[in-house]
Amino acid sequence: MSTFLGIPGIRRRSDAATGGDAPDEPFGPVPHPDEPLRWGDAFPAAAKQTLRDDQLRANLGHATRTIRGKRAAVVGEVPDWEALRDAGSAVKEQVMADLPDLLARLEENVTARGGVVHWARDAAEANRIVTEIARAKQADEVVKVKSMATQEIGLNEHLADEGIAAIETDLAELIVQLADDMPSHILVPAIHRNRSEIRDIFRRRMGDAPEDLSDVPRELAMAARAHLRRKFLSAKVAVSGANFGVADTGTLAVVESEGNGRMCLTMPETLVTVMGIEKLVPTYDDLEVFLQLLPRSSTGERMNPYTSLWTGVTPGDGPQEFHLVLLDNGRTDVLADEVGRSALHCIRCSACLNVCPVYERVGGHAYGSVYPGPIGAILTPQLTASSGGLSGSDDVNSSLPYASTLCGACYDVCPVKIDIPSILVDLRAREVDADRSRSAVDPWRAAMKAASWVMSDGGRFGVAGRAATLGHALGGSDGVVSYAPPPASAWTRSRDLPAPPKQTFRQWMAEHEKDGGER
Predict the structure, then answer these.
(1) What is the pTM of this model?
(2) What is the pLDDT of residues 146-195, one digit of tens each?
(3) Contacts of 57 (CB under 8 A, 6+ apart)
(4) Could you tell me how far CA 420 lies from the centroid of its own chain?
(5) In what order do the strands lie in the sheet with 165-168?
(6) How far apart are alpha carbons 38 and 369 in whole angstroms?
(7) What's the pLDDT score for residue 6?
(8) How far apart are CA 7 and CA 263, in angstroms?
(9) b vs e for 219-228, b when ≥16 Cβ sit within 10 Å of the residue's Cβ?
């Protein structure tokens, strides 16, 4: 695949496997996948690999601690924060209930103001629409605002296959693109990289990077700025996502911190916005709630440095052609689910990732999806349900609902109060139900059946309790079993096991009654 103005081609998994024509090896283990919502190993195997990367864990720990601290500080300044969360949740509930009418109203208002609305049932349709618009403008490259929706559909990869370069202009997304890597965080895609790694990536992959470039953050940012400036000035077509779409006015909103979004949204002749159908708010006034919730929850800022709002086309000002692609890609199926549909309330703030003890230790790549962390653990399996998700343990996404301790920290920080732990439990139950008809012997299922048989009878349960006390000798001086023989070794390989007591409660009670209660 050719290289466009310093942006490396895409190294797919098949290239690595077959030794095909591909650019330099990527700065990392994750080549671009064919399926952005389902790639790599299942979570347990992938997490086992990433846990061995000490540098990754150090990078993640430092970054998430910093973001958590900033968020806590600015949230603590808002006396009605819980009321804002309630308001955000209520608006999202209303949107889900009225979504068909709101979408029709949005289309009517965008069209009335000079825009063109396209409906995309899936990733293939969305990619085809964007490609046809770029070709009609004879563009061999497009500039992009950071967008989860376009990552979800694999737009960059599709455009590259069609001979069109998609240039990421967000600094973190540019780092990931130049490294031929995959993002590992919703808000900070390059969170798994430290600044010395970023310097090395720029030196090797950014054709116009200074030879003496250091790892000082300002120098790195200035190098990226100089690299991207000519892209902004020459691009005919820009592609963006949307944080919100206002049904009553046809207004779209993008919030960001670097100014690259403002450049993409105002300078090119043609703007294409790909927006998930759930990103609506009913009225302009509803933006007030979310423009307070989103920056505090995501970047730990009181407000986003750049908030760009546009409504259709304004003659002589900004893009003179505007296309809005409304993306379904499984969302209608999620909307029909009474329990899981609240995953569509997500405003992509990533607060749940920053507090999740699982994410902090394994990173985003272990989730095998462009949506990592707690929200990814409930959203990805539902979006892929029609193509194999939640179909039992044969699907890699079926393990994602188990990527959680159910500690509830994600719910506590979610600005729209998505009850992620409850949805995780529900999805786990569905995965178990999907596996019930399998004829193959499953050791875990057999163990659960055995436990059910023992616990359903008081006598059997008492015998099992007395047998368990034999394990007391395995405990060390700290009362913890660090190693146990099989099959218990499957547990102690990755976690400690409290040593059983010397006697069960029933044994203690029997002795207590025998002594007449004097003890």
Answers:
(1) 0.85
(2) 999 999 999 999 999 999 999 999 999 999 999 888 889 998 898 888 89
(3) 51, 361, 363
(4) 13
(5) 116-120, 321-327, 270-276, 237-240, 141-144, 165-168
(6) 6
(7) 41
(8) 19
(9) bbeebbeebb
